[in-house]
Amino acid sequence: MKDICMIGVGYVGLVTGACLADLGNRVVCLDVDAAKIQKLNDGVMPIYEPGLEEIVRRNAAAGRLGFTTDYSAGLKDASLIFIAVGTPAGVDGEADLDHVQAAAEGIAAHLDHTAVIINKSTVPIGTGDWVAGIVERNKQHDMSFAVVSNPEFLREGSAVHDFLYPDRVVLGSTDRNAAETVAQLYLPLQCPILITDLRTAEMIKYASNAFLATKISFINEISSICERLGADVKVVARGMGLDKRIGPAFLDAGIGWGGSCFPKDVKALTYMAEVSGCHPQLLKAVSEINRDQRMSVLHKLRALLGSLEGKTVGVLGLSYKPNTDDMRDAPAVDVIKLLRREGASVRAYDPVATASARRLLTNVDFRASPYEVAEDADALVVVTEWNEFKQLDMARIKSLMRQPVLIDGRNIYQPEEMKQLGFTYRGVGRGY
Ligand code: NAD
Question: Using CA atoms, how far apart are residues 57 and 73, in angstroms rounded to an integer?
Fold first, then answer.
Protein backbone atom coordinates (compact mmCIF):
# COMPACT_ATOMS: atom_id res chain seq x y z
CA MET A 1 0.00 0.00 0.00
CA LYS A 2 1.37 3.40 -1.02
CA ASP A 3 0.19 6.94 -0.35
CA ILE A 4 -0.35 8.63 -3.67
CA CYS A 5 -1.25 12.13 -4.78
CA MET A 6 -2.70 12.42 -8.30
CA ILE A 7 -2.38 15.98 -9.58
CA GLY A 8 -4.90 16.59 -12.38
CA VAL A 9 -8.21 14.78 -12.20
CA GLY A 10 -9.13 14.46 -15.87
CA TYR A 11 -9.62 11.41 -18.08
CA VAL A 12 -6.16 10.12 -17.16
CA GLY A 13 -5.85 11.29 -13.56
CA LEU A 14 -9.28 10.19 -12.38
CA VAL A 15 -9.08 6.76 -14.01
CA THR A 16 -5.52 6.14 -12.81
CA GLY A 17 -6.20 7.49 -9.32
CA ALA A 18 -9.37 5.47 -8.88
CA CYS A 19 -7.80 2.27 -10.26
CA LEU A 20 -4.68 2.66 -8.08
CA ALA A 21 -7.01 3.03 -5.08
CA ASP A 22 -8.80 -0.11 -6.22
CA LEU A 23 -5.46 -1.93 -6.07
CA GLY A 24 -5.35 -1.05 -2.36
CA ASN A 25 -3.40 2.22 -2.33
CA ARG A 26 -4.49 5.41 -0.57
CA VAL A 27 -5.00 8.08 -3.24
CA VAL A 28 -5.76 11.77 -2.96
CA CYS A 29 -6.82 13.33 -6.26
CA LEU A 30 -5.94 17.02 -6.50
CA ASP A 31 -7.26 19.47 -9.06
CA VAL A 32 -7.42 23.26 -9.37
CA ASP A 33 -10.92 22.99 -10.82
CA ALA A 34 -13.00 23.52 -7.67
CA ALA A 35 -16.30 22.70 -9.43
CA LYS A 36 -14.91 19.33 -10.54
CA ILE A 37 -13.68 18.48 -7.04
CA GLN A 38 -17.01 19.55 -5.56
CA LYS A 39 -18.83 17.22 -7.96
CA LEU A 40 -16.58 14.32 -7.06
CA ASN A 41 -17.03 14.97 -3.35
CA ASP A 42 -20.79 15.01 -3.99
CA GLY A 43 -20.57 11.64 -5.76
CA VAL A 44 -21.18 13.11 -9.23
CA MET A 45 -18.92 12.03 -12.11
CA PRO A 46 -17.40 14.96 -14.03
CA ILE A 47 -16.70 12.85 -17.14
CA TYR A 48 -18.26 9.89 -18.91
CA GLU A 49 -16.06 6.80 -18.85
CA PRO A 50 -17.57 3.30 -18.83
CA GLY A 51 -17.11 1.45 -15.50
CA LEU A 52 -15.40 4.34 -13.74
CA GLU A 53 -18.26 5.56 -11.56
CA GLU A 54 -18.54 2.32 -9.64
CA ILE A 55 -14.79 2.17 -8.94
CA VAL A 56 -14.78 5.79 -7.75
CA ARG A 57 -17.78 5.21 -5.50
CA ARG A 58 -16.43 1.96 -4.05
CA ASN A 59 -13.02 3.38 -3.20
CA ALA A 60 -14.32 6.71 -1.91
CA ALA A 61 -16.67 4.79 0.41
CA ALA A 62 -13.77 2.62 1.59
CA GLY A 63 -11.76 5.76 2.44
CA ARG A 64 -9.01 4.95 -0.06
CA LEU A 65 -9.89 7.72 -2.53
CA GLY A 66 -10.31 11.41 -1.69
CA PHE A 67 -10.54 14.68 -3.64
CA THR A 68 -9.12 18.09 -2.86
CA THR A 69 -8.07 21.42 -4.35
CA ASP A 70 -5.49 21.97 -1.62
CA TYR A 71 -1.87 21.17 -2.50
CA SER A 72 -0.71 20.91 1.12
CA ALA A 73 -3.52 18.47 1.99
CA GLY A 74 -2.97 16.47 -1.21
CA LEU A 75 0.79 16.13 -0.74
CA LYS A 76 0.79 15.67 3.05
CA ASP A 77 1.33 11.91 3.18
CA ALA A 78 2.21 11.20 -0.45
CA SER A 79 5.36 9.25 -1.23
CA LEU A 80 4.38 9.03 -4.91
CA ILE A 81 3.12 12.16 -6.68
CA PHE A 82 1.70 11.84 -10.17
CA ILE A 83 1.40 14.80 -12.52
CA ALA A 84 -1.53 14.11 -14.90
CA VAL A 85 -2.49 17.63 -15.95
CA GLY A 86 -3.38 18.61 -19.51
CA THR A 87 -0.70 19.45 -22.09
CA PRO A 88 -2.68 21.04 -24.93
CA ALA A 89 -1.19 22.23 -28.22
CA GLY A 90 0.50 25.61 -27.99
CA VAL A 91 0.71 28.28 -30.67
CA ASP A 92 3.11 26.61 -33.13
CA GLY A 93 2.06 23.08 -32.28
CA GLU A 94 4.51 22.71 -29.41
CA ALA A 95 3.06 21.30 -26.19
CA ASP A 96 1.85 23.96 -23.78
CA LEU A 97 3.46 23.13 -20.46
CA ASP A 98 1.84 25.84 -18.32
CA HIS A 99 -0.18 23.32 -16.29
CA VAL A 100 2.84 21.07 -15.78
CA GLN A 101 4.84 24.06 -14.60
CA ALA A 102 2.08 25.10 -12.19
CA ALA A 103 1.90 21.54 -10.82
CA ALA A 104 5.68 21.42 -10.35
CA GLU A 105 5.60 24.79 -8.58
CA GLY A 106 2.76 23.54 -6.37
CA ILE A 107 4.85 20.53 -5.41
CA ALA A 108 7.89 22.73 -4.72
CA ALA A 109 5.84 25.02 -2.50
CA HIS A 110 4.26 22.32 -0.35
CA LEU A 111 6.23 19.09 -0.37
CA ASP A 112 8.13 18.72 2.92
CA HIS A 113 9.29 15.10 2.73
CA THR A 114 11.02 12.69 0.36
CA ALA A 115 8.89 11.59 -2.60
CA VAL A 116 8.98 10.41 -6.17
CA ILE A 117 7.40 12.76 -8.75
CA ILE A 118 5.94 10.79 -11.62
CA ASN A 119 5.06 12.51 -14.86
CA LYS A 120 2.08 10.88 -16.52
CA SER A 121 1.16 13.79 -18.77
CA THR A 122 2.38 13.54 -22.35
CA VAL A 123 5.29 15.96 -22.39
CA PRO A 124 8.10 16.94 -24.77
CA ILE A 125 11.40 15.14 -24.52
CA GLY A 126 13.42 16.80 -21.77
CA THR A 127 10.44 17.83 -19.63
CA GLY A 128 11.35 15.43 -16.81
CA ASP A 129 14.66 17.25 -16.33
CA TRP A 130 12.86 20.60 -16.61
CA VAL A 131 10.35 19.60 -13.90
CA ALA A 132 13.21 18.47 -11.65
CA GLY A 133 14.81 21.90 -12.14
CA ILE A 134 11.61 23.76 -11.25
CA VAL A 135 11.08 21.75 -8.07
CA GLU A 136 14.73 22.01 -7.04
CA ARG A 137 14.90 25.79 -7.57
CA ASN A 138 11.58 26.55 -5.88
CA LYS A 139 11.44 24.04 -3.03
CA GLN A 140 10.46 25.53 0.29
CA HIS A 141 11.55 22.63 2.49
CA ASP A 142 14.66 20.56 2.87
CA MET A 143 13.58 17.46 1.01
CA SER A 144 14.87 15.19 -1.72
CA PHE A 145 12.97 13.84 -4.68
CA ALA A 146 13.40 11.93 -7.93
CA VAL A 147 11.49 12.36 -11.20
CA VAL A 148 10.15 9.39 -13.16
CA SER A 149 8.43 9.51 -16.54
CA ASN A 150 5.46 7.14 -16.74
CA PRO A 151 3.62 7.94 -19.98
CA GLU A 152 0.01 6.90 -20.21
CA PHE A 153 -1.41 4.76 -23.01
CA LEU A 154 -5.05 4.35 -21.95
CA ARG A 155 -7.81 5.07 -24.45
CA GLU A 156 -10.90 7.05 -23.56
CA GLY A 157 -13.95 4.82 -23.76
CA SER A 158 -12.03 1.78 -22.50
CA ALA A 159 -9.77 3.53 -19.99
CA VAL A 160 -10.53 1.32 -16.98
CA HIS A 161 -9.89 -1.83 -19.00
CA ASP A 162 -6.71 -0.32 -20.41
CA PHE A 163 -5.46 0.52 -16.91
CA LEU A 164 -6.10 -3.02 -15.70
CA TYR A 165 -4.72 -4.79 -18.79
CA PRO A 166 -1.94 -2.63 -20.21
CA ASP A 167 0.24 -3.96 -23.01
CA ARG A 168 3.18 -2.47 -21.12
CA VAL A 169 4.15 0.05 -18.47
CA VAL A 170 7.00 2.40 -19.36
CA LEU A 171 9.09 4.00 -16.62
CA GLY A 172 11.98 6.36 -17.31
CA SER A 173 14.36 7.85 -14.77
CA THR A 174 17.96 8.58 -14.00
CA ASP A 175 17.21 7.10 -10.56
CA ARG A 176 16.78 3.34 -10.97
CA ASN A 177 15.50 2.92 -7.39
CA ALA A 178 12.79 5.50 -7.96
CA ALA A 179 11.67 3.74 -11.15
CA GLU A 180 11.60 0.40 -9.33
CA THR A 181 9.51 1.90 -6.51
CA VAL A 182 6.96 3.04 -9.08
CA ALA A 183 7.14 -0.35 -10.81
CA GLN A 184 5.86 -1.97 -7.61
CA LEU A 185 2.56 -0.15 -8.06
CA TYR A 186 2.00 -1.98 -11.34
CA LEU A 187 3.15 -5.47 -10.31
CA PRO A 188 -0.45 -6.65 -9.62
CA LEU A 189 -1.25 -5.98 -13.29
CA GLN A 190 1.30 -8.63 -14.40
CA CYS A 191 2.30 -6.78 -17.55
CA PRO A 192 5.70 -6.11 -19.11
CA ILE A 193 7.44 -3.19 -17.38
CA LEU A 194 10.10 -1.38 -19.38
CA ILE A 195 12.52 0.70 -17.35
CA THR A 196 14.56 3.19 -19.33
CA ASP A 197 15.98 6.70 -19.11
CA LEU A 198 13.73 9.76 -18.84
CA ARG A 199 14.02 11.03 -22.40
CA THR A 200 13.52 7.64 -23.98
CA ALA A 201 10.34 7.09 -21.94
CA GLU A 202 9.00 10.49 -23.02
CA MET A 203 9.79 9.66 -26.66
CA ILE A 204 8.09 6.24 -26.49
CA LYS A 205 4.77 7.98 -25.87
CA TYR A 206 5.07 10.39 -28.82
CA ALA A 207 6.43 7.72 -31.17
CA SER A 208 3.58 5.34 -30.25
CA ASN A 209 0.84 7.90 -30.86
CA ALA A 210 2.46 9.15 -34.05
CA PHE A 211 2.70 5.58 -35.34
CA LEU A 212 -0.97 4.86 -34.62
CA ALA A 213 -2.03 8.11 -36.30
CA THR A 214 0.21 7.18 -39.26
CA LYS A 215 -1.49 3.81 -39.58
CA ILE A 216 -4.90 5.48 -39.79
CA SER A 217 -3.74 8.16 -42.21
CA PHE A 218 -2.13 5.42 -44.32
CA ILE A 219 -5.34 3.46 -44.67
CA ASN A 220 -7.22 6.69 -45.32
CA GLU A 221 -4.88 7.51 -48.18
CA ILE A 222 -5.43 3.99 -49.51
CA SER A 223 -9.20 4.59 -49.15
CA SER A 224 -9.04 7.63 -51.43
CA ILE A 225 -7.23 5.56 -54.03
CA CYS A 226 -9.80 2.76 -53.61
CA GLU A 227 -12.63 5.21 -54.24
CA ARG A 228 -11.14 6.30 -57.53
CA LEU A 229 -10.12 2.84 -58.69
CA GLY A 230 -13.20 0.89 -57.60
CA ALA A 231 -11.81 -1.22 -54.73
CA ASP A 232 -13.31 -1.70 -51.25
CA VAL A 233 -10.96 -0.46 -48.53
CA LYS A 234 -12.71 -2.50 -45.83
CA VAL A 235 -11.77 -5.71 -47.58
CA VAL A 236 -8.34 -4.35 -48.47
CA ALA A 237 -7.74 -3.58 -44.76
CA ARG A 238 -8.88 -7.06 -43.78
CA GLY A 239 -6.57 -8.60 -46.33
CA MET A 240 -3.70 -6.47 -45.06
CA GLY A 241 -4.50 -6.97 -41.37
CA LEU A 242 -4.38 -10.75 -41.60
CA ASP A 243 -0.66 -10.36 -42.25
CA LYS A 244 0.89 -10.67 -38.79
CA ARG A 245 3.54 -8.11 -39.66
CA ILE A 246 0.78 -5.54 -40.21
CA GLY A 247 -2.05 -6.55 -37.83
CA PRO A 248 -5.69 -5.47 -38.06
CA ALA A 249 -5.75 -2.67 -35.46
CA PHE A 250 -5.98 0.96 -36.55
CA LEU A 251 -6.77 0.05 -40.15
CA ASP A 252 -10.32 1.41 -40.23
CA ALA A 253 -10.70 4.01 -42.95
CA GLY A 254 -12.98 6.87 -42.01
CA ILE A 255 -13.15 10.63 -41.74
CA GLY A 256 -10.00 10.69 -39.70
CA TRP A 257 -8.63 10.76 -36.20
CA GLY A 258 -9.23 13.41 -33.59
CA GLY A 259 -9.41 13.66 -29.84
CA SER A 260 -7.30 14.94 -27.04
CA CYS A 261 -4.10 13.12 -28.01
CA PHE A 262 -3.31 12.26 -31.64
CA PRO A 263 -3.69 15.76 -33.12
CA LYS A 264 -1.68 17.56 -30.46
CA ASP A 265 0.91 14.80 -30.06
CA VAL A 266 1.64 14.51 -33.79
CA LYS A 267 1.92 18.32 -33.92
CA ALA A 268 4.19 18.43 -30.88
CA LEU A 269 6.49 15.72 -32.26
CA THR A 270 6.61 17.51 -35.62
CA TYR A 271 7.53 20.72 -33.82
CA MET A 272 10.23 19.03 -31.72
CA ALA A 273 11.66 17.39 -34.82
CA GLU A 274 11.83 20.69 -36.71
CA VAL A 275 13.33 22.61 -33.83
CA SER A 276 15.99 19.93 -33.45
CA GLY A 277 16.91 20.23 -37.15
CA CYS A 278 15.06 17.21 -38.56
CA HIS A 279 12.72 17.29 -41.55
CA PRO A 280 9.62 15.34 -40.40
CA GLN A 281 8.01 14.84 -43.83
CA LEU A 282 6.05 11.75 -42.85
CA LEU A 283 4.57 13.34 -39.72
CA LYS A 284 3.46 16.38 -41.71
CA ALA A 285 1.79 14.18 -44.33
CA VAL A 286 0.01 12.22 -41.59
CA SER A 287 -1.65 15.43 -40.33
CA GLU A 288 -2.40 16.70 -43.85
CA ILE A 289 -4.12 13.47 -44.89
CA ASN A 290 -6.22 13.68 -41.75
CA ARG A 291 -7.30 17.23 -42.57
CA ASP A 292 -8.26 16.19 -46.11
CA GLN A 293 -10.30 13.30 -44.76
CA ARG A 294 -12.56 15.68 -42.84
CA MET A 295 -13.01 17.77 -45.99
CA SER A 296 -13.99 14.69 -47.96
CA VAL A 297 -17.45 14.72 -46.33
CA LEU A 298 -18.08 18.10 -47.86
CA HIS A 299 -16.87 17.00 -51.29
CA LYS A 300 -19.21 14.01 -51.25
CA LEU A 301 -22.18 16.10 -50.18
CA ARG A 302 -21.49 18.72 -52.83
CA ALA A 303 -21.22 16.03 -55.51
CA LEU A 304 -24.61 14.59 -54.50
CA LEU A 305 -26.60 17.67 -53.48
CA GLY A 306 -24.96 20.49 -55.41
CA SER A 307 -24.93 23.68 -53.35
CA LEU A 308 -25.48 23.09 -49.64
CA GLU A 309 -27.08 26.52 -49.20
CA GLY A 310 -30.42 26.02 -47.48
CA LYS A 311 -30.01 22.24 -47.21
CA THR A 312 -30.51 20.39 -43.93
CA VAL A 313 -27.78 17.97 -42.95
CA GLY A 314 -28.13 15.55 -40.04
CA VAL A 315 -25.03 14.55 -38.13
CA LEU A 316 -24.90 11.29 -36.19
CA GLY A 317 -22.22 11.30 -33.53
CA LEU A 318 -20.29 14.23 -32.09
CA SER A 319 -17.63 12.87 -29.73
CA TYR A 320 -14.28 12.14 -31.36
CA LYS A 321 -14.89 8.42 -30.90
CA PRO A 322 -17.55 6.18 -29.35
CA ASN A 323 -17.95 5.66 -25.58
CA THR A 324 -16.66 9.06 -24.55
CA ASP A 325 -18.12 12.54 -24.15
CA ASP A 326 -14.77 14.11 -25.12
CA MET A 327 -15.13 16.68 -27.90
CA ARG A 328 -11.50 17.84 -28.03
CA ASP A 329 -10.47 18.06 -31.69
CA ALA A 330 -13.46 15.94 -32.67
CA PRO A 331 -13.90 15.59 -36.46
CA ALA A 332 -17.57 16.53 -35.92
CA VAL A 333 -16.54 20.06 -34.96
CA ASP A 334 -14.72 20.66 -38.27
CA VAL A 335 -17.36 18.88 -40.32
CA ILE A 336 -20.18 20.93 -38.78
CA LYS A 337 -18.27 24.20 -39.19
CA LEU A 338 -17.63 23.38 -42.86
CA LEU A 339 -21.31 22.58 -43.40
CA ARG A 340 -22.41 25.80 -41.70
CA ARG A 341 -19.96 27.79 -43.81
CA GLU A 342 -21.58 26.32 -46.96
CA GLY A 343 -24.97 27.54 -45.77
CA ALA A 344 -26.41 24.23 -44.57
CA SER A 345 -28.56 23.89 -41.44
CA VAL A 346 -27.16 21.25 -39.14
CA ARG A 347 -28.98 18.92 -36.79
CA ALA A 348 -27.05 16.56 -34.58
CA TYR A 349 -27.40 13.73 -32.12
CA ASP A 350 -24.90 12.02 -29.84
CA PRO A 351 -25.67 9.48 -27.09
CA VAL A 352 -23.50 11.24 -24.46
CA ALA A 353 -21.52 14.18 -25.88
CA THR A 354 -24.31 16.68 -26.54
CA ALA A 355 -23.60 18.70 -23.39
CA SER A 356 -19.88 18.99 -24.24
CA ALA A 357 -20.74 19.77 -27.87
CA ARG A 358 -23.09 22.61 -26.92
CA ARG A 359 -20.13 24.41 -25.35
CA LEU A 360 -18.21 24.30 -28.66
CA LEU A 361 -20.82 24.56 -31.38
CA THR A 362 -23.36 27.27 -31.93
CA ASN A 363 -26.11 27.24 -34.54
CA VAL A 364 -26.59 23.50 -34.29
CA ASP A 365 -30.00 22.01 -33.63
CA PHE A 366 -29.26 19.26 -31.09
CA ARG A 367 -31.89 16.52 -31.19
CA ALA A 368 -32.82 13.72 -28.82
CA SER A 369 -32.63 10.78 -31.24
CA PRO A 370 -31.23 9.76 -34.64
CA TYR A 371 -34.78 9.64 -35.99
CA GLU A 372 -35.37 13.27 -35.05
CA VAL A 373 -32.13 14.15 -36.83
CA ALA A 374 -33.30 12.35 -39.98
CA GLU A 375 -36.65 14.16 -40.18
CA ASP A 376 -36.76 16.24 -43.41
CA ALA A 377 -32.97 16.04 -43.77
CA ASP A 378 -31.38 16.29 -47.20
CA ALA A 379 -28.49 14.14 -46.06
CA LEU A 380 -27.28 12.20 -43.06
CA VAL A 381 -23.60 11.96 -42.09
CA VAL A 382 -22.28 9.33 -39.68
CA VAL A 383 -19.36 10.96 -37.91
CA THR A 384 -18.88 8.72 -34.84
CA GLU A 385 -19.38 4.95 -34.92
CA TRP A 386 -21.50 4.54 -31.78
CA ASN A 387 -22.98 1.00 -31.58
CA GLU A 388 -26.43 2.57 -31.33
CA PHE A 389 -26.13 3.74 -34.95
CA LYS A 390 -25.38 0.22 -36.18
CA GLN A 391 -28.78 -0.95 -35.00
CA LEU A 392 -31.04 1.79 -36.33
CA ASP A 393 -34.21 1.04 -38.27
CA MET A 394 -32.72 2.33 -41.51
CA ALA A 395 -35.96 1.90 -43.46
CA ARG A 396 -37.62 4.26 -40.98
CA ILE A 397 -34.66 6.65 -41.19
CA LYS A 398 -35.01 6.73 -44.98
CA SER A 399 -38.75 7.31 -44.83
CA LEU A 400 -38.20 10.35 -42.60
CA MET A 401 -35.64 12.04 -44.84
CA ARG A 402 -36.36 14.58 -47.55
CA GLN A 403 -33.55 13.14 -49.70
CA PRO A 404 -32.08 9.71 -48.88
CA VAL A 405 -28.40 10.70 -49.01
CA LEU A 406 -26.28 8.77 -46.54
CA ILE A 407 -22.61 9.60 -45.98
CA ASP A 408 -21.21 6.80 -43.84
CA GLY A 409 -18.05 8.40 -42.49
CA ARG A 410 -17.16 5.30 -40.49
CA ASN A 411 -18.17 2.50 -42.87
CA ILE A 412 -20.63 1.01 -40.37
CA TYR A 413 -23.27 0.01 -42.94
CA GLN A 414 -23.24 -2.48 -45.81
CA PRO A 415 -23.30 -0.49 -49.07
CA GLU A 416 -25.50 -3.06 -50.86
CA GLU A 417 -28.07 -3.13 -48.05
CA MET A 418 -28.26 0.65 -47.96
CA LYS A 419 -28.68 0.83 -51.73
CA GLN A 420 -31.46 -1.75 -51.58
CA LEU A 421 -33.23 0.38 -48.98
CA GLY A 422 -33.10 3.24 -51.46
CA PHE A 423 -30.30 5.32 -50.00
CA THR A 424 -27.76 7.12 -52.11
CA TYR A 425 -24.89 5.72 -50.08
CA ARG A 426 -21.29 6.89 -49.85
CA GLY A 427 -18.90 5.20 -47.46
CA VAL A 428 -15.17 5.86 -47.23
CA GLY A 429 -13.02 4.13 -49.84
CA ARG A 430 -15.63 1.66 -50.98
CA GLY A 431 -15.42 2.17 -54.74
CA TYR A 432 -18.48 3.49 -56.55
P1 NAD B 1 -7.90 16.63 -18.83
O2 NAD B 1 -7.94 17.96 -19.44
O3 NAD B 1 -9.08 15.72 -18.91
O4 NAD B 1 -7.53 16.77 -17.30
C5 NAD B 1 -6.49 17.58 -16.83
C6 NAD B 1 -6.87 18.07 -15.45
O7 NAD B 1 -5.75 18.76 -14.90
C8 NAD B 1 -8.04 19.05 -15.44
O9 NAD B 1 -9.04 18.59 -14.57
C10 NAD B 1 -7.41 20.36 -14.93
O11 NAD B 1 -8.28 21.14 -14.14
C12 NAD B 1 -6.26 19.82 -14.11
N13 NAD B 1 -5.19 20.79 -13.84
C14 NAD B 1 -4.68 21.73 -14.68
N15 NAD B 1 -3.71 22.41 -14.04
C16 NAD B 1 -3.61 21.91 -12.80
C17 NAD B 1 -2.78 22.18 -11.69
N18 NAD B 1 -1.84 23.13 -11.75
N19 NAD B 1 -2.95 21.48 -10.55
C20 NAD B 1 -3.90 20.52 -10.48
N21 NAD B 1 -4.70 20.21 -11.50
C22 NAD B 1 -4.55 20.87 -12.65
O23 NAD B 1 -6.62 15.91 -19.46
P24 NAD B 1 -6.42 14.35 -19.77
O25 NAD B 1 -7.14 13.97 -20.99
O26 NAD B 1 -6.62 13.57 -18.51
O27 NAD B 1 -4.87 14.34 -20.14
C28 NAD B 1 -3.86 14.53 -19.18
C29 NAD B 1 -2.52 14.21 -19.80
O30 NAD B 1 -2.50 12.81 -20.15
C31 NAD B 1 -2.24 14.97 -21.09
O32 NAD B 1 -0.87 15.25 -21.17
C33 NAD B 1 -2.63 13.99 -22.18
O34 NAD B 1 -1.94 14.21 -23.38
C35 NAD B 1 -2.22 12.67 -21.55
N36 NAD B 1 -2.96 11.52 -22.03
C37 NAD B 1 -4.32 11.61 -22.23
C38 NAD B 1 -5.02 10.49 -22.67
C39 NAD B 1 -6.50 10.57 -22.92
O40 NAD B 1 -7.04 9.64 -23.54
N41 NAD B 1 -7.19 11.60 -22.48
C42 NAD B 1 -4.34 9.28 -22.90
C43 NAD B 1 -2.99 9.22 -22.67
C44 NAD B 1 -2.29 10.34 -22.24
Answer: 21
**Number of compact structural domains in the chain:** 2
The best mutation among 67, 85, 212 to test binding of ligand 1, ranked by most ligand atoms within 8 Å of the C-beta, falls on: 85
Instruction: Quote the DSSP letter at residue 228.
Output: H
* 154 close to ligand 1 (CB < 6 Angstrom): yes
pLDDT digits (tens, 9 = 90+) for 144-202: 999 999 999 999 999 999 999 999 999 999 999 999 999 999 999 999 999 999 999 99
Is 201 a domain residue? no
β-bridge partners, 29: 6, 67
Q: Counting beta carbons within 10 angstroms of the beta carbon of residue 146, is it exposed (0 to 12), middle (13 to 18) or buried (19 or more)?
A: buried
Per-residue pLDDT tens over the stretch 40-90? 999 999 999 999 999 999 999 999 999 999 999 999 999 999 999 999 999
Does residue 205 lie in a domain region? Answer: no
pLDDT score recorded for residue 254: 98
pLDDT at 432 over 80: no
Find the 187 Cα to ligand 1 centroid distance in Å: 24
Rounded to the nearest angstrom, the distance between the alpha carbon of 9 and the centre of ligand 1 is 7
To test the ligand 1 pocket, which listed residue (260, 320, 327) has its Cβ within 8 A of the most ligand atoms? 260
Q: 91: pLDDT confidence band, cut at 50, 70 and 90?
A: confident
Q: Which helix or strand (DSSP H or E) is residue 315 part of?
A: strand 312-316
Q: How far apart are CA 417 and CA 390, in angstroms?
A: 13
Per-residue model confidence as pLDDT tens digits over 311-360? 999 999 999 999 999 999 999 999 999 999 999 999 999 999 999 999 99
Is the C-beta atom of 97 inside 6 A of ligand 1?
Answer: no
Nearest CA to ligand 1 atom 30: 121
Element (H, E) at 146: strand 145-149
User: Could you tell me if the CB of 261 is within 6 A of ligand 1?
Assistant: yes
Q: Is 217 in the pocket of ligand 1 (CB under 6 A)?
A: no
Please give the full DSSP string across 402-421, using - where no structure is assigned.
SS-EEEETT--S-HHHHHHH
CATH number of 343's domain: 3.40.50.720
Q: Tell me which residue range forms the domain holding 188.
A: 3-196
226 is catalytic: no
Q: Which member of 5, 29, 261, 278 is catalytic? A: 261
What residues form DSSP beta bridges with 426?
407
For atom 41 of ligand 1, the residue with the nearest CA is 11
